[in-house]
Amino acid sequence: MSDRYADEDVIRRILLESGTWAFVGLRDNPGRTAYDMAQLLQSRGKTIVPVHPDAATVLGEPGVASLAELPSPVNVVGVYRRAEHAGQVTDEAIELFRSYGPRTDGEIRAIWYPLDVVDEAAAARAADAGLDVVMNRCPAIEWARLRLPR
């Protein structure tokens, strides 16, 4: 896998300037990576939206069953599903962001694939659709590596 989707400037901008993250696959299970990352980003001032068929409340935030059911716009879609599901989630995220209309200057519209979620074809579709893409990266590791403020 190339580092095409690991641009340090893009990672920094997403982590610092995004406001709302949709966590696809997030459920109320503290033993899961998605839970840890949602908790970390929430502690750094991000709004998190759990996206899971159960639509459960997680970390005090009400969940939705799918990206299509999000109550308000998000900046980042985190794909916390196995890699074989990344393509479908990506296509749903592309449609979601298209529904927002034209992107404004400085607006963050991104898809984040965490460690071990690698789908080059899906990432290319997202990039071709004008989204910022980060793949095979952990928000916690990147936050520390870039020495971003807490």
UniProtKB/TrEMBL annotation:
Pfam families (UniProt xref): CoA_binding_2
Give the matching Gene3D superfamilies: NAD(P)-binding Rossmann-like Domain
Where does the CoA-binding domain lie?
15-97
Q: Which domain of life is it from?
A: Bacteria
InterPro entries per the UniProt record, alphabetical:
CoA-bd, NAD(P)-bd_dom_sf
The protein's name in its UniProt record: CoA-binding protein
